[in-house]
Structures are given as C-alpha cells and as structure tokens.
Design goal:
219 residues; 2 domains; single chain; Arc Repressor Mutant, subunit A
Length: 219
C-alpha cells in the first residue's frame, strides 16, 4: 500500500524536524520554500539543494513531489498567475459601479505587487522568459486579466470586442507597471494614494466612452 505521506523526513542541519505531513500539505510547504529561494536568487542561481534546505527536508522528498527545478518553478508560476487572475475577477465582481471597479482592479494589482512574498517577481520579472513554458504562462496571465476587464468594457460601451480588449490590456498594463515602479521607488507614496492616482488616470480615460449608443462621451 502506498502511503500518502512522505517517506524521508530527516531534518536538515540547523532546521527543526517538520514531521510527517499529508502529501498536499507537504507540496504547499515545498512550494513556499521554493518561492522564497526563487524570489531571492532567481531561477538560474537557485538550486534544488537550497530549496530542500529551506524546507527542512531531504532532496529525495523534494523529488517525490517535483521531478525537477523547472517543474517546481512552473507549479509556482501557475499558482501565482491564477492568484492574480482571481484577484482581478473578484475586483470586477465586487461592485456594479464602474468607477469603483477601476479602483478595485488597481488595488488588486498594487496588493499583488506590494505583497511581502515578492511572488510577483516570478511572473513579471522572471529570468526564465526564454523558456517557452514560462513565456506562455506570463502571456496567459496578461491575456486572462485583460479578458476579464475587456468583458466589462464591451458590455458597458458600444466598442467592438477587439477595441475593448486593447483598452483592457492598456488598463492592466498601466496597473502592473505603475505598481512595480511604485515598489521600486520604496513606496514613497502611500499605497492608498498611489492606487487613487492610477485609478483616477484609468477612469478619466475610460469614462470618455459612451455607455449607450448615441450618448455623448463624458468630459
């Protein structure tokens, strides 16, 4: 009978024993350790030894869950790409007021980038974008977040689908790039104020498109 628990739990030097964990819990623990190592060192400099050491397990345990470093990195990318998409989805469904939707979406990006985990670096600042599987995931999160915003724009304006999508990519790109710049500048502007400024810029552009046929754009 195959156990659902790990078979080798020897504590690493200087690390407390983590004990036996169910497979799903062990996987999450390993992903957490890998995230810390990849964020701190980048993909190329990180080693499976480092990740096992950080998790407090032996390498065989790590390899029971992930056959290699790339597979581990891709699992993390999937997790954090999905997290951003879900955050944008929640922002857009949190209200029916379009101005508040813009602000909530901006807040979602700033919270994602500003998180102490630094996980956004795996998605937007990866040193492995020459790898097709990584590039596909980064492109997917850009597309999927924009598609959510585009759907709202298309429903509330007379814009064709392609034009709505172009605007949505612009909105998401504005949020992502400004949030990263804000973080790189040491959060000199309080997060709430930074969100207000960027959301205001987005809203001033979007509100100019008429909500209904024949309606004059707002100024």
């Amino acid at each position: 009978m195959t156990s659902t628990q790990d078979t080798d739990e020897r504590p690493r030097p200087g690390k407390p024993s983590t004990g036996r964990l169910p497979r799903s819990a062990r996987r999450e623990q390993l992903l957490g350790a890998a995230q810390e190592v990849f964020v701190a060192q980048g993909y190329h400099a990180a080693a499976m030894d480092d990740i096992a050491e950080r998790a407090g397990v032996s390498k065989p345990v790590l390899y029971q869950h992930f056959p290699g470093k790339l597979e581990l990195y891709l699992a993390l990318l999937d997790k954090h790409c999905d997290a951003l998409v879900e955050s944008v989805r929640e922002a857009l469904t949190s209200t029916s007021d379009n101005r508040q939707r813009v602000r909530a979406t901006t807040e979602a990006y700033f919270a994602y980038v500003g998180s102490d985990t630094g996980a956004f670096r795996l998605v937007f600042e990866s040193d492995l974008t020459n790898e097709e599987a990584v590039r596909e995931r980064v492109e997917r999160v850009t597309h999927d977040t924009a598609a959510l915003v585009s759907k709202v724009i298309a429903e509330d304006t007379d814009l064709p689908e392609q034009e709505a999508m172009l605007l949505a990519v612009g909105v998401c790109g504005l949020c992502q790039v400004t949030a990263r710049f804000w973080l790189a500048q040491g959060r000199e502007i309080p997060q709430e104020e930074a969100v207000r400024l960027v959301a205001s810029l987005s809203w001033r552009g979007l509100k100019g498109f008429p909500m209904h046929a024949g309606e004059a754009p707002e100024v």
